[in-house]
Input
Amino acid sequence: MKRISIICLLLITMFSKGQTVAQLSESFLQKVIRNHFDSCQSYFDTSVIDDINPEVIQSIWEKIPQYVGEYKSYEDIRTERPDTTDIVLIRCVFEKTKLDMKFAYNRNKKIIGVFFVPPRSKTAYNLPDYYEVSKQYENKIPVKTGTMELPGVLCVPNNITDPPVVLLLAGSGPNDKDETIGPNKPLKDLAVGLASNGIASYRYDKRAHVYASKMDMNKTGLYEEVVEDALNAIKLLRANPVTKNSKIIVAGHSLGAFCAPWIASKSKEVSGVIMLAGPARPLEDLADEQIEYLLSDKFPPEKVKERLAEYKKHTDLVRDPKKLKKAEASELPFGLPSYYWQSVKKYDHIGTAKKLKQPVFVIQGERDYQVKMADFNIWKKELENDPKNKFRSYEGLNHLLQKGDKPSKPEEYNEPGNADVKVIRDIIEFVKGIK
Output
């Protein structure tokens, strides 16, 4: 009898090696549907057998009807490979809703994870796969600047005393705390990814998002748009019981990254700086480059040249200090007033970053058309002589730090995605390495 069992197990193992992970997953589900839980044993890797085994699967399967009704059928089967792990998703139909049965396989085609997750929407924000709800919680805490109160969220890992906390800063414009663009929320991705790994974060709505109608744009520069509220957020974190003894790291995205060195230079509480897609070249140069890139996708070369020349009349005003002072907002890029552009020109972002005592981590997506590898290379050239600084570019990532294999376009931001897990992992390593 024992010999027959060994032969059966050997045949199962040999058979599984010839199947795809999609076929193995479908076979596994068929066994679960028929309540043949014991025969699922051979699908699991031995490293997870204490946590994921036939008894656990049976318990989960029998409890599901309490929440979503009885199982009816299954639909499409999809495979993904975000890293070295093969992922299979089987859409299961229950009486009240649909759920994806998600399988994770190692290189030996053995299951190292299986669970049910809500189907990912093609039009709405989806929480990333690296989000672990049981490891974190959120507190709504506003940051105050004068009479202004900006809604904010402190995302905290469970059961960790004095966790390091990352202050997340959005890019240009009236962004909310998540930096929402279409169905995407890159700052929320970072927050939940960090909290799932023992690192707190704080993010808040920009004043241009909350008080746009009350702001005097002729008195609003970089300091008012980004820096002042960030400094008050740092004071808030230092006063909060959860983070009063924590290391504080400033992590800015795009314009937030551009301003991050300024913020760190003004606060002794900052232990490190993370610059995500941070411009190194003059902003007016990036504006010209972006416009040319977008025009080239829609018009023939001669039309691109004509329209670009017209646009450069605006950016050339920024380059001329005397003309900039007299220019009207309507004559300047993005309709921003002279006061704003003068504040940009006065700020020496590279010089400020070079003087920082805190370590700096520069992050760049290689598929980003808004802030390019040229900027990353400048940061690296200017800051790499200091061994405490770190630099990392990521193949295939766009401005939102999302993976793709086509040239990035604005339309891509209307497709739901998440910040790449590799970025999360590297930020975690950087933050935990700060002394």
